[in-house]
């Protein structure tokens, strides 16, 4: 595993043996805890895991911005952590969450709103909120 | 996207714009279609996606073996594809499947059988099948 200049709670806690990839990241699935709906897949760094466990608000690592991404910091659509699970190989996380509003930046509840049906990719869910409304100056 | 010597259906079909990573892979979540249980996260290559869509039996790409991995080929625990979905950024897949038996090589239904509870990592599901029984010579 990668070396860190600073010490994080996740270095010693129950998730000390997480198998982060060469970029120091692990894929995390967010699932709505009560309905079972898979909302999104994003990435977490060791720091993101530690912050999520300590605050109870889901924090990812944005690969495009190269920094921590506190889900909902721009849109208000926060995710509260209900439970964090880890898989058999310790290289994937499942976050049971309570999603406030919508998970997708397009205004849809789930990011997985396109499906292959009859050989074509079709939209199976409409936006619940206009994206402009989500990212209006808050 | 990477170049391929051979031509695959997924090059032209509904999934032509899948954003495979630098290794030519995309993470795929397998979810039991009726119960909503998240079973596992694995990786697919373009060829794995094409085969899965054409056969209806889920085929991943094994990063450890470096080859196609027809789920259940060794254990008999196959996954039938019900629907393939893709996320907003086209860089993650959600497979709604019908899992025969158990998804995890440890004999558990789901690979996500450990959870952080009260600051400790605990097992929340027991094996339904002994691993030795799964991988006995068939």
Secondary structure layout plus pairing:
The structure is a homodimer of 138-residue chains.
Chain A: E1 25-32, E2 38-45, H1 46-55, E3 59-62, E4 67-70, E5 79-86, E6 93-99, E7 114-117, E8 120-123, H2 131-134
Parallel strand pairs in A: 1-6
Antiparallel strand pairs in A: 1-2, 3-4, 5-6, 7-8
Structural account:
2 copies of one chain form a homodimer. With 138 residues, chain A is mainly beta. Chain A is built from 2 helices and 8 strands, in the order ββαββββββα. Chain A has helices at 46-55, 131-134, and strands spanning 25-32, 38-45, 59-62, 67-70, 79-86, 93-99, 114-117, 120-123. In chain A, the strands form 3 sheets. The first copy, chain A, has a 4-stranded mixed β-sheet with strand order 2-1-6-5, covered by helices on one side. Chain A is globular and about 45 Å long. The N and C termini of chain A lie far apart (39 Å). The A-B interface holds A 13-15, 27, 29, 31, 35-38, 40-41, 53, 83-89, 92, 94, 104-106, 108, 111-117, 119-121, 124 and B 13-15, 27, 29, 31, 35-38, 40-41, 53, 83-89, 92, 94, 104-106, 108, 111-117, 119-121, 124. Strand 5 (79-86) of chain A pairs antiparallel with strand 7 (114-117) of chain B.
- Give the quaternary arrangement of the chains: homodimer
Sheet/helix structural class of chain A: mainly beta
What characterizes the major β-sheet of chain A? 4 strands, mixed
Task: Please give the count of helices of chain A.
Answer: 2
First CA to last CA of chain A: what distance? 39 Å
Order of helices and strands of chain A: EEHEEEEEEH
**Overall pLDDT of chain A, averaged?**
91
Please state roughly what percent of the residues of chain A sit in beta strands, choosing from under 5%, 5-15%, 15-25%, 25-35%, 35-45% or over 45%.
Answer: 25-35%
Strand order of the largest sheet of chain A: 2-1-6-5
Shape of chain A: globular
Give the proportion of residues in helices of chain A: 10-25%
Largest contact between chains: A-B, 37 and 37 residues
Q: Any idea what the radius of gyration of chain A is?
A: 16 Å
Low-confidence stretches of chain A: 1-5
* Number of beta-strand segments of chain A: 8
